[in-house]
Write a structure and sequence with these properties.
4-stranded antiparallel β-sheet, about 15% strand, single chain, about 180 residues, alpha+beta, 2 domains, 6 helices
Length: about 180
């Protein structure tokens, strides 16, 4: 049934509200408890619980396990292609997509590309003049996985690399009618 994921979410949402959590106004899959500073992040049937105190996190887990069939997989190391890094000494937590980026570079045969300090080369220039003009050029460009590359860049931009926003906006301008660079 198409509605079952939505119904499951509505049921979980009403449960979280009933036990005193608030739904984040910016993301309906994030729940928080202001009193003990606990965040619960939900993605389909996976969740991550983050909090200041382990006892509060364990209390929420036991409360959830009373009403839901769930498995505790321990401390999170990765979610949605993002590695989760913790430094207990400096009390820091951060996300990285280094593994994802390496896979993308391998996928598009770019693993030997030279790194640069800025995401967009100063000589980068797409223009309408580059759009394919002949059927041969259109056929050639249809085999170039340009949109796929842009999608991979967008995922990195949205998750951990906001510095790529300008680059992605520039390469998206001609995504539907890109031609070969002269």
């Amino acid at each position: 049934m198409k509605q079952s994921p939505r119904q499951r979410y509505k049921w979980f949402d009403s449960y979280m509200l009933r036990i005193g959590y608030k739904r984040c106004e910016y993301d309906c899959c994030v729940y928080l408890d202001d009193g003990s500073f606990i965040f619960l992040l939900l993605y389909v049937d996976y969740m991550i619980i983050v909090g200041n105190h382990l006892c509060d996190v364990n209390e929420l887990k036991s409360l959830l396990s009373e009403d839901f069939d769930m498995k505790d997989l321990g401390p999170s190391k990765k979610i949605l292609g993002m590695e989760i890094h913790k430094d207990k000494q400096s009390i820091r937590l951060w996300l990285s997509q280094q593994g994802y980026v390496k896979k993308v570079l391998d996928k598009f045969n770019m693993s030997n590309a030279k790194p640069v300090s800025t995401p967009l080369a100063k000589d980068f220039n797409h223009s309408v003049d580059q759009c394919p003009k002949t059927d041969v050029e259109v056929d050639y460009m249809s085999k170039v996985p340009y949109a796929n590359v842009v999608g991979c860049l967008m995922y990195a931009m949205v998750c951990t690399r906001p510095d790529l926003a300008h680059v992605v906006s520039q390469v998206c301008k001609f995504i539907s009618n890109l031609g070969k660079r002269n």
